[in-house]
């Protein structure tokens, strides 16, 4: 059974006004002091209005779900000590002037990328799935490419930007694409080619190091995992469990295809970018590009195709029925973008949207 871990970036907000607050340094220091073994799950991020955590690797999805809820509650507890709250929102609905952290790396990014760094207050969910080797990892990355836009559609949770409705379900993903190293990749074919591409990117001097290679899916530098990076941070804590379930299914399915000698799909980066754009625009409320044909189909039809694609792997891990139930529940409830827009229609104000999302973050 492949292990899975999740990283989530949470927005720090004032619990009354809903405005983003730059308190990550103080919260991280307090969390480190409170950790008995020195292994607290929280990490610094580019902007001081963000707080990131990483779960421990899990084999059982129920255990992963409990770990996500525990980490969210711990983040809320630490933030509360400073009169702050956490919200699983992929962009701030209210206007914000992001504060860049003092780390030398972040200052280099601000100098190098200018306004793209200063405005990059977006919050994602990354899923790590264990692989046996770099050979398997690159083979998996090559074969997962067409399906990643579907995971993005499930996670959409950023319809608002600087106080306005963007018309997108995931505007975070559009802001993220400003990084020159972000997005889908061509087929690599081997670990050697993957490392050659990464080395060539670093040698240009445009990016600082391997950590700034922001592929939609990449080999993790520090752990034997494939890291899938396309998702918004999700409002409801059950959604990252669904993402992790489907991501593990995609990795296992791709590994089996590789071992069986099946070649990756030939979709080029230009078409994959269109699939990602359509997912960001529509979420699960309209049409998506079908990963096999790259033609428009309804979101439910594409999700059924994804479940069929990974069905054997999910059945073998005991996750198939749960995944089907979670997909059906998400389609009925909607993703975070739909929830945020419904909250705005009911309340009439983005402040109320944020304060309600604070509550739902810990449900």
UniProtKB/TrEMBL annotation:
Q: What one GO molecular function would you report for this record?
A: glutamate-cysteine ligase activity
Q: Which InterPro entries match?
A: GCL_type2/YbdK_subfam, GCS2, Gln_synth/guanido_kin_cat_dom, YbdK
- Per its UniProt record, what Pfam families does this chain match? GCS2
Q: Which Gene3D superfamilies match?
A: 3.30.590.20
Q: Which residues form a coiled coil?
A: none
Reaction catalysed?
L-cysteine + L-glutamate + ATP = gamma-L-glutamyl-L-cysteine + ADP + phosphate + H(+)
SUPFAM superfamilies per UniProt: Glutamine synthetase/guanido kinase
Which EC main class describes this enzyme?
A: ligase
Q: Which GO terms describe its biological process?
A: modified amino acid biosynthetic process
Q: Which domain of life is it from?
A: Bacteria
This entry's Enzyme Commission designation comes to 6.3.2.2
Going by the UniProt record, its keywords in alphabetical order are:
ATP-binding, Ligase, Nucleotide-binding
Task: Relate the protein's function as given in its record.
Answer: ATP-dependent carboxylate-amine ligase which exhibits weak glutamate--cysteine ligase activity.
Q: Which family does it belong to?
A: Belongs to the glutamate--cysteine ligase type 2 family. YbdK subfamily.
Descriptive protein name? Putative glutamate--cysteine ligase 2
Q: Which organism is it from?
A: Streptomyces davaonensis (strain DSM 101723 / JCM 4913 / KCC S-0913 / 768)
Q: What is the lineage of its organism?
A: Bacteria, Bacillati, Actinomycetota, Actinomycetes, Kitasatosporales
């Amino acid at each position: 059974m492949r292990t899975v871990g999740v990283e989530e970036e949470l927005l720090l907000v004032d619990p009354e006004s809903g405005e983003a607050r730059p308190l990550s340094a103080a919260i991280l220091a307090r969390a480190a002091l409170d950790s008995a073994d020195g292994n607290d799950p929280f990490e610094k991020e580019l902007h001081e209005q963000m707080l990131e955590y990483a779960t421990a690797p899990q084999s059982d999805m129920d255990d992963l779900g409990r770990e996500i809820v525990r980490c969210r509650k711990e983040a809320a507890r630490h933030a509360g000590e400073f009169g702050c709250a956490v919200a699983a929102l992929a962009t701030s609905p209210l206007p914000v002037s992001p504060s860049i952290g003092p780390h030398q790396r972040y200052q280099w990014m601000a100098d190098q990328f200018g306004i793209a760094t200063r405005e990059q207050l977006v919050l994602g969910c990354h899923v790590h799935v264990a692989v046996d080797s770099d050979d398997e990892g690159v083979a998996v990355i090559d074969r997962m490419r067409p399906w990643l836009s579907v995971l993005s559609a499930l996670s959409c949770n950023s319809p608002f930007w600087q106080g306005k409705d963007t018309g997108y379900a995931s505007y975070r993903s559009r802001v993220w694409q400003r990084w020159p190293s972000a997005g889908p990749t061509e087929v690599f074919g081997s670990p050697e080619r993957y490392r050659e591409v990464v080395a060539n990117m670093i040698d240009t001097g445009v990016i600082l190091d391997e950590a700034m290679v922001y592929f939609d899916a990449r080999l993790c530098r520090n752990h034997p995992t494939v890291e899938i990076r396309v998702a918004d941070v999700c409002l409801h804590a059950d959604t990252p469990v669904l993402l992790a379930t489907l991501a593990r299914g995609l990795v296992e399915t791709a590994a089996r295809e590789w071992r069986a000698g099946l070649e990756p799909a030939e979709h080029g980066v230009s078409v994959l970018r269109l699939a990602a754009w359509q997912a960001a625009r529509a979420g699960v409320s309209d049409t998506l590009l079908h990963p096999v044909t790259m033609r428009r189909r309804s979101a439910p039809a594409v999700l059924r195709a994804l479940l069929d694609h990974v069905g054997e792997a999910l059945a073998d891990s005991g996750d198939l029925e749960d995944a089907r139930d979670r997909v059906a529940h998400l389609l009925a409830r909607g993703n975070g973008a739909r929830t945020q827009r419904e909250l705005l229609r009911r309340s009439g104000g983005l402040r109320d949207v944020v304060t309600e999302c604070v509550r739902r973050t810990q449900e």
